[in-house]
Amino acid sequence: MTLHVRPTHGLRPLLRRPPLPSFRGKLHDARTATVIGRLLAVAVAVCFATGLISHYLQQPPEWLKDALPSRPVWGYRVTQGLHAAAGTAAVPLLLAKLWTVYPRLFVWPALRSVRHALERLSVAVLVAAAVFELFSGLLNVAQWYPWPFSFVPVHFAVGWVLIGALLLHVAVKAPEIAAHWRRRSAGTLAPAEADGLEVGGPEADALEGTDRRSLLAAVGAAVGAVTVVTVGQSFTPLRHLDLLAPRHPDHAPQGLPVNRTAAAAGIGTRAVVDGQWRLRVAGPLPYELTLEQLRAMPQREVTLPIACVEGWSKSARWTGVRVRDLLMRAGAPPGARIRVTSLERRGAYRVMEMGRGYARDPLTLLALRLNGEELSLDHGYPARIIAPNRPGVLQTKWVARLEVL
Ligand SMILES: Nc1nc2c(c(=O)[nH]1)N[C@H]1C(S)=C(S)[C@@H](COP(=O)(O)O)O[C@H]1N2
Ligand SMILES: [Mo]
User: Fold this and answer.
1) What is the C-alpha to C-alpha distance for residues 278 and 401, in angstroms, rounded to an integer?
2) Does residue 164 sit in the same domain as residue 83?
């Protein structure tokens, strides 16, 4: 397709057309943009929905704190695995979509009307937000933060910008999307394209069909490839193909990857911890327990995953004391909410709050053992929280204190 200059309507250009490139590729067209665009929209919608779930599980507003469900136990594992997988798959889709539409950057005249100017501005916001979300997400998975702001609030805020700009884009393009939603049979004349991009006649259409299928096959292969080499980080049956994800289910002391080591968290050696450690429980009837005393309480075994917000997850077998038993002993009213504090001196995950639904769940443990062994220091020795359907960041390690709120 060639980019032709058309006599303008609306604003008269003040300048002559500069030497802009012209595009002969047949796939910079609305049908290709529609086919790739709707796949990309699905990926973005999955990211947005699962991102909201993750946000509200981590930072619930007051009214939601006690209503968060602790079932299904694998809920967060699935939603956050989908979040990372859809975001990863969206990268090749976004690149393909940008390639398809980039000739429109060079339409002339650059601005034709107020409406055209607003539309271009909204597309600029859309592209910037999409690029930012995908790359900040990927870098977060790699735990690399080459920016001065904190990832979580900015990724969340730009997520809203992205979904807003996407809805606006779909609304503005609705007639074009509708016109190109279905494959046109060869021989139908293409409707005149918007934005001065004109397409050839019937034969061009037939040729385009073949080329488009090749392009889509290549994009599909790229999506498949990036998915297959990363999805094993959470979908463990495919773990042997997990070549690119930073956390591998099999590179795992005690059968579970470590996200933040004790050394990184500033937790001393086991001997140091042993000397001073007591579990302090604050409530109507406060008490303290040594590790020996905790081990002497009724022990439960549960199988629950750690599901990290960065996308990796793995199920494990945990043994320890039910949190609700500890709370009962402190005279907590049924349905109490609690605050858990780690031995860690600083760090975003030192203090965690747990609503009623989790605190009274029989599967929520103060775990002492992992996969049949005493917890290693890196997994939270002497005691850590494990609860169903919870983001990994809230599975507090090196617990020092429980407080009934
Ligand atoms: N005190 C404390 N607990 C913590 C963290 C932390 O940095 N400090 N990291 C959390 C995160 S992000 C995850 S994914 C899980 C990982 O647990 P694991 O290292 O035992 O697999 O621990 C959580 N518990
Ligand atoms: Mo995590």
Assistant:
1) 8
2) yes
Q: Is residue 91 part of a domain?
A: yes
pLDDT at position 393, please? Answer: 97
261 and 168 part of one domain = no
Q: How far apart are CA 344 and CA 220, in angstroms?
A: 45
Confirm whether 20 is domain-assigned.
no
Select from 393, 394, 398 the residue to mutate for testing ligand 1; criterion: most ligand atoms less than 8 Å from CB: 393
45, 166: one domain: yes
Any atom of ligand 1 within 6 Å of the Cβ of 391? no
Q: Does residue 21 form part of some domain? A: no
pLDDT digits (tens, 9 = 90+) for 223-279: 999 999 999 999 999 999 999 998 899 999 999 999 999 999 999 888 777 878 999
Any domain includes 247: no
Report the C-alpha gap between 115 and 205 in whole angstroms: 30
From atom 20 of ligand 1, which residue's Cα is the shortest distance away? Answer: 379
Instruction: Give the range of the structural domain holding residue 267, as residue numbers without chain letter.
Output: 253-404
- pLDDT per residue over 338-369, tens digit each? 999 999 999 999 999 999 999 999 999 999 99
- What is the rounded end-to-end Cα distance, in angstroms, of the chain? 67
What is the C-alpha separation between 81 and 308, in angstroms, rounded?
A: 9
Closest atom of ligand 1 to CA, residue 398: 1
Are 342 and 398 in contact, with CB atoms under 8 Å apart? yes
